[in-house]
Amino acid sequence: MQKTLLTKLTIIVGLCIVFLIGLSMISNIIYERQYYAKSVIQEITQQHVNPQEVITPFIAVPTTVTPACQPDASDTPNIKSKCESPYSKIETVFATQTQAAQNLKVSTDTYKRGIYSATSYDGQLTFDQSYTFADTLGNVDSTVTALSNDADSIMTSPNADKTQLTQTITHWNKAKLLIPVSDLRGVATLPTVTINQKSIGASYPQIPMIEDLTYVEVNIPEDVLAQLIDPTSQQNKETLVATGAIDKNPDKSEVDRQPSNPKDNQALKITIDLPLFGISNLTTVPTGQNFTLSMHSDWQTPNFIGKALPNTKSITDKGFDASWQNQYLTVANNQSLSQCISTPNHHCTIINEPTLDPDSQSYNPDSFDSSRGLTADSAAVAGSNQNVLLNSFGVSFASPNDVYLQTERTMKYALLLILVSFGTFFLFEVLKSSRIHPIQYLLVGCALFVFYVLLLPLAEQIVFWQAYTVAASACVGLIGWYSYYVFGGLKRALIFTATLAGLYAAFFGILSTEYLNLLLGAIFCFMVLACVMVMTRKLDWYKVT
């Protein structure tokens, strides 16, 4: 008798192992389809537009630096001494206050490839900025000294000081407002820029001021610069003359028109309206002194990403509103961005390329995070190319119907479903003295297995809960109809069918509670075990045949 029981249990365990092998094959199909879906989205980004990362606009001012020259003591008068060649670098001027607003409309129908689609967004980005130059001018070295025709050498005389200090020319007439966007294909029309209530046209750079950074630029009007820089200062006046911002020979009336108190005019109001569209996620790099970002969208399931979560957020059926303000990240970006851009000979690169999957960014040991900053010594090492990864935050427009993730989670309960179904069959056999052949176990297991075969292709066509309902109803109906002939009665068939339907409903409830699924799964296992123990508490297993 016990040999028959052991044989039946062995057969059931063997069938479970066989179905586990089949389930692993279905899992491979899920990964394959998921990979194919990602490759299609990647193809869409290559042909249309990538995820976007926008750096807060800032002013860049080119400068020319002549390094200090210290002749050797052995040098004789009137002999040229070799010195380092002049080089150019970029000085940055960040806004003292920035209020950024992003209004986005999200769609999953813009870019489609068969059953696959990429979540795209289209909206308007607005930057209201204020620049105060009183403190900034003190940090920018605007000492002006005429350079020799031969930049590699300096003529000395017996009566001249043989030591030449570092000399810097700030080209204020070439100052530009930069609006960095990671993929300019997403800027369908050039942004509208207003400087001190004056509309200025933006353009794509003909010769990029900063290499490896994509941006649109706006020329700062010379009359605005002439008001911002103190014309009463001899250094700044020489700077304007050398760079052409003012006339070298102004008449008296022109001089009299210069503001008596330039600090009252050292404020620049800039408004930027940037149309932007992209795919999957949008991140913003904050810069300046006081930065705030507010975002509004019609998307109901946002996934906030980056180095900071929003300070406030509101998510409803109509969309979401969120706002960010993080002073530490802003200051860290200021330091890293300004030091990288001012590195001589462009030996520093700003990384401004977000990925489709923001949680899987690889770490490059040659790169460094802006939160750690860039030391002045490391920035000045000639020939050492360095990368700067700036701090950013934003939102990922995750699809609420990720069929592959949900199907994969359903697969985790597949073995439990098969075990409970086989266990119910086995209990009917031992408690009601039914005779169930191993082939019948096999056919019921195949019907349970077909559920997962139906679920994935249905979920790719319709909403996941609808696909789950259709697949589960088909399998429960088929097994219920077959169990009527297995048990030889309607009552037992109804009990088994109701039990199986309850299992599918319970598993879907567990899957729907994303943050409690482990707890509910553990409670479910405990309840199943308790039911089996209660039902078999008076069973004499030695008499089971």
Write up this protein:
The structure is a single chain. With 545 residues, the protein is of the alpha+beta class. It has helices spanning 2-47, 133-139, 222-228, 234-243, 252-256, 327-341, 376-379, 403-411, 414-431, 438-459, 464-487, 490-512, 517-535, and strands at 52-55, 58-66, 81-82, 87-93, 97-113, 116-132, 153-154, 167-170, 176-180, 192-195, 198-201, 215-219, 267-279, 281-285, 291-297, 303-306, 312-316, 319-324, 348-351, 367-369, 386-389, 393-396. Strand 20, helix 7 and strand 21 form a beta-alpha-beta unit. The radius of gyration is 35 Å and the shape is elongated.
Percent range for helical residues? 25-40%
The total count of strands amounts to 22
Identify the strand order in the major beta sheet: 11-10-13-6-5-15-18-17
Q: Count of helices?
A: 13
Termini Cα gap? 5 Å
Shape: elongated
Whole-angstrom Rg: 35 Å
The whole-number mean of residue pLDDT values reads: 77
- Low-confidence segments, ≥5 residues, pLDDT <50? 141-162, 231-265, 361-384
**Structural category:** alpha+beta
Instruction: Quote the beta fraction.
Output: 15-25%
Summarize the biggest pleated sheet.
Answer: 8 strands, mixed
Q: Key terms for this structure?
A:
545 residues; alpha+beta
How would you concisely characterize the structure shown here?
The protein is built from 13 helices and 22 strands.
Indicate the topology.
Elements: H1 2-47, E1 52-55, E2 58-66, E3 81-82, E4 87-93, E5 97-113, E6 116-132, H2 133-139, E7 153-154, E8 167-170, E9 176-180, E10 192-195, E11 198-201, E12 215-219, H3 222-228, H4 234-243, H5 252-256, E13 267-279, E14 281-285, E15 291-297, E16 303-306, E17 312-316, E18 319-324, H6 327-341, E19 348-351, E20 367-369, H7 376-379, E21 386-389, E22 393-396, H8 403-411, H9 414-431, H10 438-459, H11 464-487, H12 490-512, H13 517-535
Parallel strand pairs: 1-14, 5-15, 19-21, 20-21
Antiparallel strand pairs: 2-4, 2-8, 2-9, 3-7, 5-6, 6-13, 9-12, 10-11, 10-13, 14-22, 15-18, 16-22, 17-18
Helix pairs in contact: 1-8, 1-9, 1-10, 8-10, 9-10, 9-12, 10-11, 11-12, 12-13
